[in-house]
Structure formats: structure tokens, C-alpha cells
Amino acid sequence: xxxxAIIGQGYVGLPLALEFSKHFPVYGFDINANxxxxxxxxxxxxxxxxxxxxxxxxxxxxxxxxxxxYKATASLEDIKEANVFIxxxxxxxxxxxxxxxxxxxxxxEMLGKVLKKGDTVIYESTVYPGCTEExxxxxxxxxxxxxxxxxxFAGYSPERIVPGxxxxxxxxxxxxxxxxxxxxxxxxxxxxxxxxxxxxHKAPSIKVAEASKAIENAQRDVNISFVNELALxxxxxxxxxxDVLEAAGTKFNFLKYKPxxxxxxCISVDPYYLAHKATQLGYHPQVILSxxxxxxxxxxxxAGKVVKLMIHKGQSIKGAKALILGVTFKENCPDVRNxxxxxxxxxxxxxxxxxxxxxxxxxxxxxxxxxxIDIISNIPEDKTYDVILLAVxxxxxxxxDFNKIKNENTVIFDAKAILNRDIVxxxx
Length: 428
Hints:
Elements: E1 4-7, H1 13-20, E2 25-29, H2 33-40, H3 51-63, E3 69-73, H4 76-79, E4 84-87, H5 102-112, E5 120-123, H6 131-144, E6 153-156, E7 175-177, H7 182-193, E8 200-202, H8 206-237, H9 241-248, H10 270-280, H11 287-296, H12 298-312, E9 321-325, H13 341-350, E10 354-358, H14 364-371, E11 385-390, E12 406-414, E13 426-427
Parallel strand pairs: 1-2, 1-4, 2-3, 4-5, 5-6, 7-8, 9-10, 9-11, 11-12, 12-13
Helix pairs in contact: 5-6, 8-10, 8-11, 12-13
């Protein structure tokens, strides 16, 4: 019988814990005590959890003497009982765009203190090929005193959860699995088959599984960078990028990507992990990094375009009032991790504009903590703006009455191409 501890109870770890707790006793471990209390009370600020399911598995833990069900905990002592540990901590990049493995290493150090003979550690965090065996396993060995593939084992199964997507969920996306031995690979595969209705794909090695995740997001990043570069070109030509894409999209094999800001915890980060490994091996990647450069400059381009439009309309730049709609990294989702909207905000502030930022989905406290920005709770009724910039395609913005918040010369820029074209001055 498996007793599972899932390390990290965020966008990835929580849905995973809830699904496994239908079948097994599951500890949801998180170092944030407030997060643990929230979950044990049946609440979830990330909006990723099925709250009915959360209540159900919390109750199951109480009524079945924890033969199955869910308990959130911040206690290392609690998870000592587990024999399967699944690590879902974030893997960010630092200010030099290099992998920041500190959360992963810290989690491995912690697990090394509770690891027992026969235990299995499965990593889900996105990393470069070789990271699990080269960086994490030695830490587990050092802190446990146990020998890898003799006393304990490892697996890797990359997360594929899309924040905010209620259609393509954990259970409906094929799960890639792998293990440090053929026997463990099969064990890990069978374990995930218990919860993933779409099935699994057993990779031949941990490195293959790691690489598969890295290239998923690198491919998407490169494809978006192509249409972003088209947007930069067509802006100079004087034609609308979306018009061009609609025309080209009438051919059956044209890939329908749209230009935009590329943020979030995966697409804008994972390519740097792959590039880091390639550079270590003596190869400097061209396509991957060129795509990153294009995508990283889009916030600057949007801010510059807005200022040009203001000048064209005869507006004064310094002291002009701007409203940015949306700060999350994607629409209809509260996730603000690595959002590029804050870069637009910073650029406009540097130009001398007074900028308000409103997002009905984002946590004011989280944005303040992460970026030092105070976002407004509502659009003031008695205020009009010289610039309105739609940065995120939240549904709430479609019904917004722009006439109430604009003046005669207001510049309206639509970075997501969702607004009525009659009301916008330009769009990406």
C-alpha cells in the first residue's frame, strides 16, 4: 500500500494530491503554514481545486482512519510515514536567465532527512535533461545516508497542468512517466495510471522524460516568437497582424498562433533550462535563444507603441494617466507568476506616465509582494484615462464600458486583439 507525500501544494501539487487521495492516503506538504490551514479548511485561493472534491477527500481522511484521503501539513514529522514522495516545487530562473535550482535542492535536502529504505522519490518539476540524476539524487544520498537504486529509487513525471484550463486537466492529458530502474519505471507508470484517464507514456529513461517537458514549452515559445516577430514587421508595414494571420490561417496546415506577451512559470522559463544544458555541453543554441529574445522584448515594444500613438494624437506624455487592464500571465486565471505585464507598467512609468493597474482576477497582496506594485481594486467612477491598454484577455474586459473611462483623445491599445476594432487605435 502506497502512502504518498506531495511536496508543494500550488497549481501543480494540489490537483495531483486530490486525485491520488481518492485511492491512497496523501499528505499535501507545504512550507507555507497559511496555505496548509487554508486547504485543511476546504479553501483554495488558486482556484485550481475542485472544492467539492477537496471536502470529500478531507472527510475521507477523517472517516477511514486515513486509509485514503487528504491531509495538508507543514510538518516534516508527518510525512515520515510516506513511502512515495512527489516533488512539485517551482524551478524558476535567476536575473541572468540561468536555472535557479534552490527550491528543488532545498526540497531534496528536506526529503533526505525522512527517506527510508524502499522509498521512491518522483520529481515533477520542470528541469533540463540530467538534472534529477546529476543534481537531486546526490543531495538525497548525502542527507539520507542511503544508496541510490539500492536503498531508494527515483522517478520523473513532468507536470502538464495548464493553469486556468478546466477542459484539459490533470486527468485528461497523457502523462509521461519514467523511473531509475525498469521495475521502478513500471511502478511509477502504474501509479499514475490510477488517476490519469487519458493514459500514460512510459519513457525509456528519466533524461528522456525531462527533455520531453523542456521541448514542449520551448516549441511553443519559438512558435509564438515567430508571430511576435511578424507583429514587429507588420507594424512597420502598416498592416494589422491579426488580419494577416486570419488570411494565412485559411490553409489547413497553417499553425494558428497569435502574438502576445509570453510569461508564466513555464513557457518563458523552460527554454532557458534547455539552453543552459546545451551550453554546458558546448553547443550554443540559436533558434531557442533567438525566440526568447523576441518574446522578451514585446513588453518594451508595446509600451513604445503606446507612447508613439499618444504623440500622434498630440498628447503630453509626462503626467498622462494610463490604465492597464490585467496583470496575470494569462486570461481568466489568478496566476501572476513571471507575468510580463509588469514590464509594460515599468516602461510606461519610465516615460513619465501615471499608471493604474486593474485586474479582477489577481490578488492585490500577491502582486504587491511579488512586484512591489499597488493595483487598484476597482476603476474609479470619476476618473478618465489618456491611455487604456488591454494586456490580458479576461472575460470581464469584454463588457467594460470604455466611454465612461476615456476622454476625447484617449489611446486604446489592444494587446490581445479581443476588443471591437472600432474603439481601438491599434492592436498587437
